[in-house]
Amino acid sequence: MELQILITLLLFLLLVLFPIFFLFRGKKYPDGLPPGSLGLPLIGQSFDLLKALKADKVDKWFQEGITKHGPIWKASLFGYPTVVLHGPAANKFIYTCDGNILTNTQPPSISRILGSKNIIELAGHDHKRVRAALTSFLKLEVLKQYVAKVDEEIQHHLQTHWHGRHEVQVQPLIKTLTFNVICSLLFGIERGLKRDKLLPHFQHMIEGVLAIPINLPFTQFNRGIIARTKLVPMLIDIIREKREALQEQKQANPRDKDLITSLISIHDDDGSPMMSDEEIIDNIIVVMVAGYDTTSVLLTFLVKLLANNESVYSAIVSEQQEIAKSKALGEALAWEDLTKMKYSWRVASEMLRINTPVALSFRRAMQDIEYGGFIIPKGWQVLLSSSMTHMNNDIFQNPTLFDPTRFEKHSLQPPPFSFVAFGAGPRMCPGIELAKMETLAMIHRLVTQFTWELLKEDECFVRNPMPEFNQGLLVRITPIKATFMSSKVSL
Ligand code: HEM
């Protein structure tokens, strides 16, 4: 195994980093670079950052850089010279900078799996156009009507994977749930063989995106590429079926609509389709990749918190029981119910502040940029850490303390660009309402149907780069009582 890792690293150096090294080797950079060192050729400080990320100590890594060099400094990360930034002003600069000046371009290895037309890769007019198409379905006014559908997936999930068990591994189970919610709500793929066939391909693709990009038969990256080649024909079939259904007017009821149908239906003012099939495919893939791990990480941390924090648990249970009492037995959750879960969302927000799923954001300078009195040369990366801002004592006092009152209406609200778990500006997460809906509905069903305790009090997680609990967060569960369980929902 270790030999395999060594060979992979050597090949990574040969195939990826050396070409980048030679590209940048002879370059003369303009004056006015930030302080700091680019470290060893190619490797720079990459391993240090990866080590800190794995141990969830990114803020410590940033702090050491700040202490050494000041608030803005340079480093070499993953083969590129990089300017490292932090804080609300830097967040504002990065999240609102013109997408043609500071691009979101990912390494070619990532777009090889996600596709070159995925929204993360796009800039300018194309980004606006694809984002408008995605948000036309993901916006609150539309999603509101699908709360019962999300709830039904959750009820089915709990019935299948939780009831009748004494112990469960929370994180892998919740990943299955987020996959199923996205399949049902966004792709309109009902439970059954078709859905089951998609899951392993998506999982391999996600692992491939996060892997070292060596395309050899035994690597995760290679598995990710193969998974894409298998998945794309399946998605082409799904798009064709939905187009036929639309033409036959089988989907007259807008409630039967899903994101894919919505993307096929959207036309420009001149009547031509707003998105090509290639764009639809790449963006279906990116929506799954972006929505699968993030929401499941949040829910997993919440399950852990509720097992450990008695006062937060009691307050959440009383809020959720009030809502359960107002419903008939078996009645599905509706949008109005979620609007009453204010405390629960404050707890989720505080969890997103402390354990933010997306800890680092990278951008690439397309021209020389001046920022904070320094030059960021064309071609360099810019690195930003949301957890650095979330852990800033001047913004969030006593930042390691879990305190949901920070998000109360009458509390001093964090200044703009300080709470950036969902990013900000024109690229702010378009899945925020879906994430909120899934999180609140799942918390409701969990606390009204089960109590639980951690089987390993000290179960840790590592970031790969998403937080992964060592044993998937093992808990012992006890069902509460049948009165809160749905009898109407068909299981
Ligand atoms: C707790 C859950 C989630 C968190 C914390 C989260 C976080 C983020 C963040 C921080 C960004 C911006 C990254 C950057 O600018 O560098 C982002 C973008 C994005 N997210 Fe989410 N996300 C979540 C759930 C979802 C879901 C459920 C979906 C799917 C519907 C989704 C789809 C996307 C997409 C498509 C983008 C790219 C937007 C663009 O480039 O314009 N996310 N997310």
TrEMBL record:
Q: Which GO terms describe its molecular function?
A: heme binding; iron ion binding; monooxygenase activity; oxidoreductase activity, acting on paired donors, with incorporation or reduction of molecular oxygen
A GO cellular component term found in this entry reads: membrane
Major subcellular location class: membrane
UniProt entry tagged with the keyword tRNA-binding: no
CDD domains linked: CYP90-like
Please list the residues that bind heme: 429
The organism's superkingdom is given as Eukaryota
**Is Membrane one of the keywords UniProt gives this record?**
yes
Q: Which cofactor does it need?
A: heme
Q: Name one GO biological process term.
A: sterol metabolic process
Question: What is this entry's stated membrane topology?
Answer: Single-pass membrane protein
Protein keywords: Heme, Iron, Membrane, Metal-binding, Monooxygenase, Oxidoreductase, Transmembrane, Transmembrane helix
Family matches, as InterPro entries:
Cyt_P450, Cyt_P450_CS, Cyt_P450_E_grp-I, Cyt_P450_sf
Give the family from UniProt: Belongs to the cytochrome P450 family.
What is the protein name given in its UniProt record?
Cytochrome P450
